[in-house]
Amino acid sequence: TRGSEFPIAQAKKISALFKTASPKKMIRRQPFRCYKCFAQLGTLPRDDPRLGGRYPCAFGSKLDVTRNVAEEDGMQLSEYMTLPVDQYVDLDLPLGAYMEWLPEYANSNYMREGKFVLVLPSLQFLSLEVKPTVQLGVRVVEGDDPCVMITAQDASVEGEWADKLNINERFEFQGTTRITWNAADESGSDASLFTTTEVVVGVDPPSPFNIIPISVLESAGGLVVDGITRILQDAFVGALADDYKKWATDAEYRTMRAGVCNPNKVKAITGSSNNLT
After folding, report:
1. Which of 17, 115, 243, 274 would be 102's cystine partner, CB 3.0–4.6 Å?
2. DSSP E strands: which ranges in the chain?
3. Distance between the two ends of the chain, CA-based, in angstroms?
4. Are 37 and 219 in contact (CB under 8 A)?
5. CB within 8 A of 213, min separation 6: which ones?
């Protein structure tokens, strides 16, 4: 990475590589086709309604993860999943990723809604390094089909070239994770956790990267997004299962968790109780 010439030189090299490659070689250069992600060519139209046709480059990922959980006697997984939502900040995530609770957004429905910041590890995209941060809203949905919904509400990236290329003004990130669960049944089958995550990214490539074929940018972006989504979601579900086990078998831990997010604590931290927006 040599000074300000790095992005231009890198973009020209990538563009030249794909312009001169033969069709036969191009096929061998497309490992992304084996990934279950929207980045596969043609599977995420640029007029996707979630992006409204606002971006010339679009990619994303969709991933389902299931984890069996052995329920402890009298300690139902459904009860654990409806604990105060700030439980998620205590879960261990891989690659140095972590979540921070934003108590200033807590409201009177403190057990059912909350906001967090998810800080991701530095990611490499076409030899540029960026560090993404995503603001998440978490909500417990009750009723006949209970679930926990996690929704990306804002996103930004940090890094030397992210600032120089004004990346934060040229992309949009949308993402949702829906967590559902089944109780153990009389046949002896374990309880289960199910998660479905969908991520969509729209980008208006800045110069000099706008000289690279859009298909190349989409496949590269799709690989990055699918890879980090796969790692984080699998680890997140595993951490939920492990935390349930601890909650179900440790009475002291249960007592602590029951009072993690109470109105008095929120008021003491924030001095007020702002509504979640």
Report:
1. 115
2. 57-69, 98-101, 113-119, 123-125, 128-141, 147-158, 171-182, 191-203
3. 41
4. no
5. 15, 18
